[in-house]
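Long-time lurker. I teach an intro course on protein structure, and each term I like to show students one example going from raw sequence to a predicted 3D structure in token notation. This year I'd like something fresh instead of my usual example. Would anyone be willing to generate the tokens for the chain below so I can use it in lecture? Attribution to the forum is fine with me.
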Amino acid sequence: MAVDIKGFNSDLDSIAKYEDKSVTDQGVIQPQRVQDSRDSYQNTSFKMAIALCIGVGLIYLAFLKPGIWGIDGNDMVSVAKSLVTEQNFTVPPEYGGVTGHTGQHYSRRYPLLPILATPFVAVGLALSHWFNLPEHFAAATCALVLSILLTAATTALVALLALRLGSTSQGAYIAALSFAFGTIALVYGHTFFAEPLLAFLTVASIYLALGRTRQELAGASILAGLAAIAKPTGIVVGPILSLYFLAKRRPLRLILGPILAPTVAALLYLFYNYIRFGNVLTTGQPLSNFTTSGALERFLGLLFSPGVGGGLIWYCPPVLLAIIGLRQALKSRTLEALVIVGVFLGYLLLHSFWLCCGWDWGPRFLVPALPGLMALTGLVGKSWWKWLIALTIVGFLINAPTLVSFYQRYYFEVVTAGDGQHNIWFWGNFTDAPLFHAWGAAYRQVNDALAVDIRDLVREASASTASSEEAMPELLRIVAVWWWVLPAVGIPMWVGVIVSALLVSAGVWVLRKIWRHLPVERELSCERVAKSRILLK
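-- Reply from a regular --
Happy to contribute to a lecture. Here you go:
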């Protein structure tokens, strides 16, 4: 795509100089050139977003897992299966279900992800019948495609949000790839937790809130409401957007929108409680886990501890440069930068009061805040790109073992060895932290898979997984890549390996192609770029 970069940057200079003055035809700014620049900018942004979504999606898909390890994901897949086959929300008791008022078991988790996953699970159930596979494994594998699509779309939104904050196109592109490959998004994009969905809804609502049209602002409110249904902690988004609209002096109806939408979502969630338990206030979650005891330890652990469930700076190294980007954003888009900071602090503080003891890789609860933080890294300037790329490589090396293994493998080994889980928690033994043992655990899992006949394992697998994270020996011996189980359906494994290689190659090709077509924008001050982009939109 040919772009008049010289003229484009000239108009950026002019627009920044005259700030928010109307474009006139009296020699100050040429309307046609501004319109051309606007069209060029929007076209380039759209193409970049689509390319990022496709490229990242293809690469992620190459490492699709053949099942889900853990109660949370299997529980939500079971809800989706019930919606497909029984048209209700019941689950088998072995997936951690809670007995409802009718005597049936219901999930204690959140309804939006299972609802969205129903088409994928329906495809999985059909495939299980055609190829004589365990129903639950096939349904779970197809459901994981949804997580990949959500993370790929979130990657595109990271770039678009960075542009809206005032980043150059190349800076936004690098920030998006840093999110996709240098943070725990690489891990949770291959799991079935609510966090990838909540991350998508959070960044999408922020992006739309920073827009200018009524449709965008209304969309921000709607997505803020959906965030609360995706997971109750998503309630933090709406009030922050309302305060932002208030500070921007938006009309009252727009100010109230981000509060009213989550309110409606909360009412729907109460109705969901009533359907399950006959009481609108019964959620199935142990409310005693919400406590001030140990809150400071968890607050610091989420940020700094390399143990299970913590360590933002360890498992997401590129996020460190968000501090530099924030400094730049505060100079020109102060309110917008504060929105991102507010959402991050909201998730951080809320989860600091939640006592959780699950097997997480890095700070899973902060995944919804990651896209906004990584969008800020797009503003760091070209002189910082080498550091951003270096930190992304470090983050990739830390998280990459989970592409070819289940990250829970190491936790299982610790427990079965009798060493005690306390050694790997927030402030346990530093040398026992998961990030130092992930590659070794992945190596052992691959060796275990090579030592057995995968066809026998799949035949022996039941339609449901084990009832706890500590009792899944069948998955311990299965390499966590889809093509490894192809022999169970009569397809040679090498066929899947070739398909995966082609998917990675195609993804890399798409990403490289759009990079070569990005305009090499001359770096202006953050303030001038931000104001220019506002007018160009």
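Some talking points for your students: The mean pLDDT is 85. The radius of gyration is 24 Å.
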